[in-house]
TrEMBL record:
Residues 131-221 form the M23ase beta-sheet core domain. Pfam families: Peptidase_M23, PG_binding_1. This is Peptidoglycan DD-metalloendopeptidase family protein. Transmembrane segments: none annotated. Residues 69-95 are annotated as: Disordered.
């Protein structure tokens, strides 16, 4: 089985990747430290572009094949690391409990209205038989939005809904769509840090304002989040953000 690696992965598979990238001699030499940081991410994207691949920064089967590897090291977790005491640790794999420490709430305070009821909740009815694909966090226009964890930009800001924009960021094995943000407000760059201001709440044409948050559990997929099928009109790995938000609300960003 081929290991899939992305930014913030750790372990021997990442060392193997860094060694292979260094052998290509088409990039600046990487430190072979087993950490998939920004330099390794940029090197992967450059290698992918040079070899006719989609430069998404994810090292999957196609990228491994271009590196002339059919079955890279997979005995140790591609996302694990060993500390100075010899204890193996793993970052979040995207489960709700495992995001309790590495993730924070996207605002410095909780909204006055709950994201678990009314039209703000996941699967709330919408026009045309469609159902709501995320949770809405109601705040005034211009309210700063914070990255919920360290992450990598998946898709640059784009026109989203009713005069607002959206941006997609991979946080570990989760992909978050930060929707209904103010046009031109994204300041996160190609990678973000937990608790970093990344955008501002936008104003809909109706005058309402909120962060529309969607969560997807397959961080390795580069498929479009929006589809034309199903009640949600979203990718099959879309999930209810409420259980995550109910955990993250106990960890507000530090000012």
């Amino acid at each position: 089985m081929v290991a899939t690696l992305w930014m913030f992965s750790k372990g021997r598979d990442v060392v193997k990747l860094q060694q292979l990238l260094n052998k290509t001699k088409t990039i600046q030499s990487l430190i072979e430290d087993g950490y998939f940081g920004k330099n390794t991410y940029n090197a992967v994207k450059l290698f992918q572009r040079n070899n006719g691949l989609n430069d998404d920064g994810i090292v999957g089967p196609q990228t491994w094949r271009k590196l002339r590897v059919q079955d890279p090291l997979t005995n140790s977790s591609s996302n694990s690391s060993t500390d100075s005491n010899g204890t193996t640790t793993k970052p979040s794999t995207g489960t709700i409990a495992e995001t309790s420490e590495g993730f924070c709430f996207p605002f410095t305070e909780l909204p006055a209205l709950s994201w678990t009821n009314g039209g703000r909740q996941f699967r709330a009815p919408r026009s045309g038989g469609r159902k709501h694909a995320g949770c809405d966090l109601k705040f005034p226009p211009g309210t700063p939005i914070y990255a919920v964890a360290d992450g990598v930009l998946v898709r640059n800001p784009y026109s989203f809904y009713s005069g607002t924009s959206a941006v997609e960021i991979r946080h570990g094995e989760l992909i978050l769509r930060y929707g209904e943000i103010a046009n031109g407000s994204y300041t996160g760059g190609s990678s973000v840090k937990k608790g970093q201001i990344i955008a501002k709440v936008g104003r809909l044409n109706s005058g309402s304002s909120m962060l529309h948050l969607e969560i997807y559990t397959n961080g390795a997929s580069s498929a479009s989040l929006t589809t034309r099928v199903g009640e949600l009109r979203r990718r099959s790995d879309v999930t209810d953000p409420a259980p995550y938000l109910n955990v993250w609300k106990n960890n507000l960003p530090r000012l």
